[in-house]
Amino acid sequence: MTSERAYWLAWSQISGVGAVTLQRLRQQFSNLETAWKASPSELQTVAGIGKKNLQQILEQRSRITPEKILAEHEANHPPFLTPADSDYPRLLLETPTPPAILYYRGKINAAEMQGTQPLISIVGTRSPSDYGRKWTKKLTTALVKHGYTIVSGLAAGIDAIAHQSCLDAKGRTLAVLGTGLDITYPQENRQLYQKIEQQGIILTEYPIGTKPDRGNFPARNRIVAGLSRAVIVTEAPEKSGALITAKYANEFGRDVYVLPGSLENQNAIGCLGLLNHGANVILGEGHLLEMLGTMPQLDLFEETPAPLPDIAPDLKELLSAIAPEPTAFDVIVQTVQKEANQVSAGLLQLELLGLISQAPGMRYQRLR
């Protein structure tokens, strides 16, 4: 696990290697350690790595020692999660471009990260009307009382109201930043930031010192959508970051719920547009809860296990290295101390026998 964390972190330090390239590297080499040690000719076979990008990778790779940078990061930076960690958000792993690093402050809740405690995003305009404020508070309070955790982006307006209403209702809330953890943006939310740190969790993919940049916030919105079972837009104009969050939600297969507004309210035009394109209309707290109640549960019911089939000793050894929770490929290889290609072949056999399943992010979990 430590090894895989080190290589996730190392690759994240190389400019020109984003989430898409990381996914391609993992697909090509099975794990990021193998990718890190790959020759230039091997790296060039990865889609998207051309001569210029390859040169950048080689130059920067020569200056980075993964284990050293991991130790330095753990000593001098806030806690962080990588896709190699069991607490990395399950739903975020299922998106096309999960962040390589998620820095955080606050207390991790395993049920939230694994999706068994449902997360719902509430987003909207920075300049809400009284109607938007009122209904954001009402909907948030109702959701918290029915066991949902609230996610938003700590922006002014609807985001801040959703966070504060959640805290007032004694619920947990997750704030996703477009800056480093040491920067509160906007500054007016500083006190709210501190409360969330005590009663929830603050996440960002950006390292300490990252200032608010216009390009950071659409990327932040993808994380808000990716973390959530559903996205609620309570009030948004025709051009709004909340609409970007809704767009990502659609791409990720999440439901979008929208509070209807008046044509005379410019801050409702974006919401009306979403409704026109098929979003679910919210007709009240009870109606929203009823619609959310139809979402399939992610937790699995325990069944009486069937007896294991008669399998070869090497497969039994491999199976014993896999937990009921998703286990990283690198961890399995290290546990059984065999070549990666042998482990891959064995995993395929176990999967065909119905004994394991592959989870997102090159992780495997035992079914029986």
Class based on secondary structure composition and strand pairing: alpha/beta
Mean pLDDT: 90
Q: Helix coverage percent of residues?
A: 40-55%
Distance between the termini: 23 Å
Order of helices and strands: HHHHHHEHEHEHEHEHEHEHEHEHHEHHEE
In one word, what is the shape?
Answer: globular
CATH class of the largest domain: Alpha Beta
What is the CATH architecture term of the largest domain?
3-Layer(aba) Sandwich
Describe the structure.
There is one protein chain. The chain has 368 residues and is an alpha/beta fold. It contains 18 helices and 12 strands. The chain folds into 3 domains: 2-76, DNA polymerase, domain 1 (Orthogonal Bundle); 102-292, Rossmann fold (3-Layer(aba) Sandwich); 313-366, Arc Repressor Mutant, subunit A. The chain starts with a helix and ends with a strand. 42% of the residues are buried.
Outline the secondary-structure elements:
Blueprint: H1 2-12, H2 19-29, H3 32-36, H4 40-43, H5 51-61, H6 66-76, E1 80-81, H7 90-93, E2 102-106, H8 110-114, E3 119-124, H9 130-145, E4 149-152, H10 158-168, E5 173-176, H11 190-199, E6 200-204, H12 216-227, E7 230-235, H13 241-251, E8 255-258, H14 269-276, E9 280-281, H15 285-292, H16 313-320, E10 327-328, H17 329-336, H18 340-352, E11 356-359, E12 363-366
Parallel strand pairs: 3-4, 3-7, 4-5, 5-6, 7-8, 8-9
Antiparallel strand pairs: 1-2, 2-6, 10-12, 11-12
